[in-house]
Design goal:
This protein has 2 helices and 8 strands; from the N terminus they run ββαββββαββ. By secondary structure, the protein is mainly beta. The strands form 2 sheets. It has a 6-stranded mixed β-sheet, with no helix packed on it. Strands 3-6 form a two-stranded antiparallel ribbon. Strand 1 and strand 2 form a beta hairpin. The protein is globular and about 30 Å long. 17% of the residues are buried.
Length: 120
């Protein structure tokens, strides 16, 4: 996935409590096809370490997931560049997502987040 990973300059941390991730234009919309959410490097430290589970509260229920991908050897202290576990049902409900749509992820507790869609 590294060749399709794009660090979106439009993604940012808001008030230290939430991140906004802009869904990128990638070849064949890899994130949508693989049902994953890529986390730009600039907001990566908002999430737990690679393989450390966290909960996403969504409109389809609670999803337990974790960061995967990326490489600690490449100097990434936390590792992981995306998460996908448990997102299949969420993506099925939101099959209209497109590049440029924004995901707002808010920290609501220790390793607990809320995922919302902010359409263009």
């Amino acid at each position: 996935l590294t060749d399709e990973y794009i660090d979106s300059p439009n993604s940012f941390v808001k008030n230290g409590n939430s991140v906004e991730i802009v869904l990128p234009q990638t070849p064949k919309l890899a994130w949508k096809h693989r049902k994953l959410i890529t986390v730009p490097k600039r907001v990566r430290d908002f999430f737990p370490k690679k393989h450390e589970s966290f909960m996403l509260h969504t409109d389809v229920g609670e999803i337990i997931t974790h960061m995967v991908g990326g490489s600690e050897e490449a100097g990434e202290k936390l590792g992981g560049s995306y998460f996908y576990k448990g997102l299949r049902v969420w993506y099925e409900k939101h099959n209209d997502l497109k590049p440029g749509d924004r995901l707002l992820i808010t920290r609501i507790g220790d390793r607990k987040y809320e995922l919302e869609i902010k359409k263009q």
